[in-house]
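Changelog-linked ticket: nickel (II) ion example.
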Amino acid sequence: MEAITRVQRLAEAGIGQVPPQYIQPLDQRPIKPKSPSPPNNIPLIDLSKQSESIKCEIGQACREWGAFHVINHGVPLELLHQIRSVGRSFFEQCPIPEKLKYSCDSSFAASEGYGSKMLANDDSVLDWRDYFDHHTLPLSRRNPSNWPESPPNYRRVVAEYSDKMEALAVKILKYMSESLGLAPSCIKDAVGDFYQNITISYYPPCPQPELTLGLQSHSDMGAITLLIQDDVEGLQVLKDGDWIAVQPLADAIVVLLADQTQIITNGEYISSQHQAITNARKARLSVATFHDPAKTVKISPAFELVSKASPLRYHGVVYKDYVSSWYTKGPDGKRNLDALLLNS
Ligand code: OGA
Ligand code: NI
């Protein structure tokens, strides 16, 4: 019945070479950052500063990177520690047969539970990653009995984390709106009520990291993603054609702008193209919290940002259609967003 290969099982079997389905084509394989040395991390923004300087720094980071770290974000550091710890405990303490009880229904996209990427078609390559996806918002989608029972605080920690991430996402979208001269709630109102999913990803050590990716290059399809990682490096963001490693900072949260925000801001702010690489020695864990529009919401550039000097750049799109093209065609960098460009 269980036809999907769990990456963790391959890693634990001690294989010396990765199976062919995990080998990336030459042009997708991880490359060492070029010299002369590129910036060695994404921008760091301190949310305890004065709001004028926060807006200015966020504006610059969103224009140039689509990715930045925030510190003094108001989320209890203990909660960041706890969610990493319950996630690690699920992947490392819970026996695989027990984990399989939570397997997600792989016949449809983004279903809740324990998963690993399957071959979508003959030429797609598998990620060196297992994950657990939680549906957390709106509350009508949140059913903690679908989540691991152990450790005993697992469900409470995920629920609490969901609430704190929502509040932080609202706060950052507000700064972003204001930094563009828009009303504070402009971007959030365009997105509407958040559909929030929390994905805990587990990247086992990989015998051939130079041939594989933990997660292929993509931009996230929703509005804004908040991500934390452990102390093992692996996340990279694309900046002016170079992959820049996002160095782990224990107390910081990584903000990744996603595609709908690029559309709403008419391309003033860019979604981050990113990927995760693997390593041969240490398992890596990350927790990504995605904030998306409802499937029925139509996303279009904010009219306030469109003028003669800054003409309309994107077609509007009903979010459901965006998601289905993402899943049928695959991310392949930012192809789905480019398809909405006017005059292309
Ligand atoms: C994602 C993602 C990166 C990471 O889940 O969309 O980009 O470091 N994750 O796990
Ligand atoms: Ni992502």
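Closing comment: Example verified and attached. The chain has one domain: 7-338. Residues 7-338 form a domain with the Jelly Rolls fold (CATH 2.60.120.330).
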